[in-house]
Each structure stands twice: as C-alpha cells, then as structure tokens.
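Re: your question from the hallway

Yes, I did run it. Sequences:
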Amino acid sequence: MKTSSSNPYHVNVFDVSQRIGEDREKHLEFPAPHRLGEGVASVLEGTTIVMDVRLEGLHDGILVSAEVETTAEAECVRCLDQVMVPVEVEFQELFAYSATEELEFFVHDNHVDCEQLVRDAVVLELPFQPLCDEDCLGLDPETGDKLMEPRSNDSPYIDPRWAALEALASDDTTTASKPAAKKRK
Ligand SMILES: [Zn+2]
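Structure:
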C-alpha cells in the first residue's frame, strides 16, 4: 500500500476498495491549502475545512458522499464591513476503479481526490451579494460612515402618485352630489 500524498483533500479508500458493500466514515479537518472562490466572497487559504466523508465500496467504484463545512470571508456590498459567511455543502460522486469507465473521477493509489468536488460545491454556494445584515443601510453618502438608522429627510417625501390620489379624493368630496346626475340617460 502506497502512502497517500500530502494533499489534505485526498481520502484513503484502501479499506473499501474492491469490497462491495463495505463502508467507512471519515472525519477530516484541515486548513485550506488554497483559496476557494475568486469573487466578492471566498474561503481564504488557511481557513478550516471540515469534511465528513462516507465511503462505500461498489462493484465499479467507490461512492463518496461528503458534508463540508467551512467559512467564507466577504465584504458587505452596502457598507463594506467584513462579513463571515458560514458555508455548508454536500456532494456525492462515484470514483471508478479504472479509468476506462465513463466516469469523470477515478481512484488513484487507494485514494480519492475530493479537491475539485469541494471547490465546485463551495464556490457555487458563495453569495454574489454578501450583506452584513439583511437590513444593512449602507454608507452615508455625505460622511461615508456606516448608517445606523435611516437618513432623516429635511421634508417628508410624498410620492407623486399619492399626491394624485389625494387630489382625486378631495374631488370626490366636493362632488359628492354628482351620482344623481348619472340617472339621466
Ligand atoms: Zn453592511
């Protein structure tokens, strides 16, 4: 049995390899060797990645089911505060014993490499528009400070549509006697 590489995403499957019906559960915890994600949110290098992996020996390969937990770092799109975003994803993939089968993933030297699967699942889960809070008010356009309460306006703003409705309503009151005129045909 060869020693597995130092890549933490590599999971040793020796126990279940070529053993149909055999299964094992493994708990992995390691610092991310590379950053995951290139957008406004990403899992930075060194962030702890926790993986609970289940390996099942099947006839043509090893079924790998995993739950992955980590934390992404992002900047709130409104106020630019740093936000920590918990990320929880799952994946399931069949790793074939031999490269001749029509599968994308293969068992190499008694291990499976989960890096691409983890990366794809995590990146898909990262927010495009991270917010520190759903109700984040953003920055004050004048001072650049983070707003803690809605900006107070100098004069109460009246929506022009409401103004029009109000005009109609006052028309009604002044012409309340009009319906009588409708009786004429
Ligand atoms: Zn914010």
